[in-house]
Design brief:
- With 347 residues, the protein is α/β, with parallel strands linked by helices.
- The protein has two domains: 142 residues, 3-Layer(aba) Sandwich (Rossmann fold), CATH 3.40.50; 180 residues, 2-Layer Sandwich (Dihydrodipicolinate Reductase, domain 2), CATH 3.30.360.
- The strands form two sheets. The chain has a ten-stranded mixed beta sheet with strand order 14-13-12-11-7-10-9-8-15-16, covered by helices on one side.
- Helix 2 links the parallel strand 2 and strand 3.
- The protein starts with a strand and ends with a strand.
């Protein structure tokens, strides 16, 4: 079976999604679309792609696709995703899927009505170190988890170069919460179950926030604290420390690659130190390609044989609601209760 895929958005789409999808022998990248026809044509020529467009609507209508991968500003993605589903296409979407829960809900509803495969590009559960940590949590190797602290600090390209870009504007899906902590929200709930409440402070404000401090509660009774920033140079740190009833584990990455640099360490209360359990193998390229390729393969399995995959647009909606709760907690200076099933209470 050949799965004909179109790519909308040629930043992350070209750097990560094209090689990730091509890792599956069933995939034929048939078309690309970008806002500028020159960029689309250059990519198509360099990557050996049949068709190129500066109008994604034409691509959906004319390219003869089975699936589309969307990696665009979050404000643009809802229209693209819903249109693709309306054409009967399977959809793979970059996170955050939208800029507000209403649009994310519209996308998830469209996917459910269309009955087509749909997935969202949340990467960390695809990494072997994170999977090993998940197995340890599920097996209760150190008893029940009590508290987690997540620390994620780096200097983003947009901040470093002073770009006037949506990537720096919180209400447009940029800043630190939507593009960065969207990954964290999904990964933390994957590890520990539903978040039940959020408190947050963003700085300098919730329009162009570059740092965030959060307190989280979970349905299980555990708690978590989160500190993140995208203006930290030369500091580069992504670390998750988890305290259990009888031990601790740590996921850490101090490399410049957001995916391939992780190590997992763990130890019981009786140990003198934590031992190295696992580490990601460096790929020599963009480390995001490997986890994205695992997601892409699961997406293609869903298309080929009907085996449902995930995370889906419904998971994207869940994360969008957590993003919204974070913004509200900051603006109103209140604790925001979160319903594990329905979303944010009062939103």
């Amino acid at each position: 079976m050949t799965i004909r895929v179109g790519i909308i958005g040629l930043g992350y789409g070209r750097q990560v999604l094209i090689p990730a999808f091509r890792a599956d022998d069933r995939v034929h990248i048939r078309a690309v679309a970008a806002r500028r026809i020159g960029k689309a044509a250059e990519c198509a020529a360099a990557e050996g792609i049949d068709l190129w467009f500066d109008d994604w609507r034409r691509m959906l209508a004319e390219a003869g696709l089975d699936a589309v991968a969307v990696a665009c500003p979050p404000s643009a993605q809802p229209e693209m995703v819903c249109a693709a589903l309306g054409h009967g296409l399977a959809v793979f979407c970059e996170k955050p899927v939208a800029t507000d829960p209403a649009d994310a809900s519209r996308m998830a509803t469209a996917a459910e009505k269309a009955g087509r495969p749909n997935m969202v590009d949340f990467l960390f559960p695809e990494l072997e170190t994170w999977r090993r940590a998940k197995a340890m949590v599920d097996a209760a190797e150190f008893g029940r988890p009590l508290h987690a602290h997540l620390s994620w600090h780096f200097l983003s390209y947009a901040v470093a170069h002073g770009l006037d870009s949506w990537k720096r504007v919180g209400i447009e899906g940029g800043g630190v919460v939507a593009p960065v902590l969207s990954h964290s929200f999904h990964a933390l709930e994957w590890l520990f179950g539903p978040i039940s409440g959020i408190s947050a402070r963003l700085a300098p404000d919730d329009r162009r926030e570059t740092s965030a401090i959060l307190a989280l509660a979970f349905d299980s009774g555990m708690t978590a604290s989160v500190g993140a920033s995208i203006d930290s140079a030369p500091l580069r740190e992504h670390r998750l420390d988890v305290t259990f009833a009888h031990g601790c584990l740590r996921l850490e990455n101090s490399s410049g690659d957001h995916a391939s640099g992780f190590r997992l360490l763990a130890g019981s209360h009786g140990d003198g130190s934590m031992a190295l359990i696992a580490e990601e193998t460096a790929t020599g390229g963009d480390g995001r390609i490997v986890p994205a390729s695992r997601l892409a393969r699961r997406f293609c399995d869903w298309i080929a044989d009907g085996t449902p995959g995930g995370p889906t647009l419904a998971d994207g909606l869940r994360v969008q609601r957590l993003i919204a709760a974070t913004g509200r907690a900051h603006r109103d200076r209140v604790w925001i209760p979160v319903d594990g099933d329905a979303g944010i209470l009062g939103l």
